[in-house]
Amino acid sequence: MNESQKYSRILLTGAAGGLGKVLRQRLPAFAQTLRVSDRADLGAAAPGEEAVVCDLADRSAVHRLVEGVDAVVHFGGISLEDRFEPILQSNIVGVFNMYEAVRKHGVKRVVFASSNHVTGFYKQTQKIDTAAPVRPDGLYGVSKCFGENLSRFYFDRHGVETVCLRIGSSFPVVKDRRMMATYLSYDDLVELVRCSLFAPDVGHTIIFGASDNTTKWWDNSAAAHIGFKPKDSSEGQRARVESSSPPLQPNDPVGIYQGGAFVLAGPFDD
To answer: Which domains does the chain have, with CATH numbers?
Structure first.
């Protein structure tokens, strides 16, 4: 597959979520048909869309969902710290069901929404690359570590190529001082997904998802073959952010660790 071609059918999971809604608008440029899925209401299918309500924990439903698909952009699942049981069902059982369906139906390319929270316990004074050992900052981060390892296994055993996107903070604007480093604009998010879909021979690649911010915690040199070159930066928002967000106390873990508030989230009572 090259950029002059379109996929016949791309599956986007998590299409009702915050980033899923952005990708639902943009991914039709890369496929003749976009199949969108979520367990929440998706509304009416747009022209060129197929809308399917599906719970990722339902193995049979996931297998039906993947049938006839050429590539998967997997953004489904829980995206915040939570109790273990919902994370287990959505982010662990769900991702296993997805990769089993991908294997069964011969899909060869997956773009997996991982998270910067797989390395959240590195300090903000450190700069790490994709080979650094994982240091998850919560159960959510642990579940994304599982997804990265599972996708590695499915490449080594079954030849399913995956690009794992360790997404920073993708929002319309920078919200706080931490996001000066983690900000990923929507345009850069879409470009990252595009590169991940069309780059040849990605094998199993991990890449951090951040715009071209002046403050950098992450080194993507090992993922240069993906061809991702972000265009945006958080720097133009620095004055607003620093004037509205007072500096944290030096001993505040939120300001010490790359995971920010996630290092303090939970545990949650059942």
So the answer is: 7-264 (3.40.50.720)
